[in-house]
Every structure is written in C-alpha cells, then in structure tokens.
Amino acid sequence: MTIGGLAMSDASLWLIAAVLLAGAELVVPGVFLIFLGIAAAIVAAATFVLPELPVAAQLGAFAMWSTVAVLIGRRWYVDYPVDTDDPLLNDRARRLVGETVTVADPIVGGRGRVQIGDGAWPAAGPDAPAGARMRITAVVGGIVSVEPL
Question: What average pLDDT score do residues 38-64 get?
Fold first, then answer.
C-alpha cells in the first residue's frame, strides 16, 4: 500500500494503529484504548508473519483480539482493583447511603420523595410527613430507601 508516495505494508499500518491507540490512551484516559492497541499489535505481528493475509481476515482478527484483550483486561481489573483514596468517586448512589435527607413529598404507603441536594428523588420507606428528617439506607434502581433518624 502506498501512502503519500511511501510504500507501507499492512503490518506497518497495524503497528502505527497500535502506537496511535496506545498513545490515545495516555491523552484520553479511560483504560480501554490500550486493549485495542494490544489487538492491533497482535494483528501487526500476524501480518508480518503472513503478509498475504487478506484485509477481511485482518479486520476479523482485530475484532477477535480486541474482544479477547478487553475481556482479559476487565478480568484483570476485577482481580487486581486499582487503589484509590475515594472508591465511591463515580458511584453517586453508594455515596448517598448514610446521608440525612428531608422528606419533600410525604411518604405515604411506603412511597414519597426526598430532597437530595437541589433535586427531589423518589423514596421508599416508612410513612413520614413532609419536612421529616430521614437517613438513606440504600439506593436501588434510582429509588432511595430511607429510615427515620
């Protein structure tokens, strides 16, 4: 293949893709692009060894190796979680457990609304009048479970 007058093999193109994907992981962290970069590097090695490998087979191999790399990466992060100072940083629901809230709409028959920050959330719990103070015990499916203080 010729790009800008420069002849490049499929292996070279896959290697460039691998480097770009790995580099993009540094710029846009999210721990996902690196696995695609690994897949591209594997396909680069395969096309270096098998230079006549059809493009369709290369794309199929990339899709397969991307899936394998992502699954291995997910398993790795489950087995070896990243230590953090705030493990609930991106889990707003779990951060709410234990917070004290005010009943916005009376809880009647186990259902009502509570004020959390500048919004009102659906709540489940024992009957309580508007203005009562409650403690959040859980958040399931966007519904806040509360108990009296």
Answer: 94
Distance between start and end Cα atoms, the chain = 71
Q: How many helices (H) and strands (E) does the chain have?
A: 4, 7
pTM for the structure as a whole: 0.56
Rounded to whole angstroms, how far apart are CA atoms 144 and 103? Answer: 11
Pair of tokens at residue 57: 């087979």
Spatial separation of the C-alpha atoms in residues 22 and 27, rounded to whole Å = 9
Q: What is the pLDDT of residues 93-145, one digit of tens each?
A: 777 888 999 999 999 999 999 999 888 999 999 999 999 999 999 998 889 99
Q: What phi-psi label fits residue 86: left (phi over 0), alpha (psi between -120 and 50 degrees) or beta? A: beta
Domain architecture of the chain: domains with CATH: 2-79 (no CATH), 92-148 (2.40.50.140)
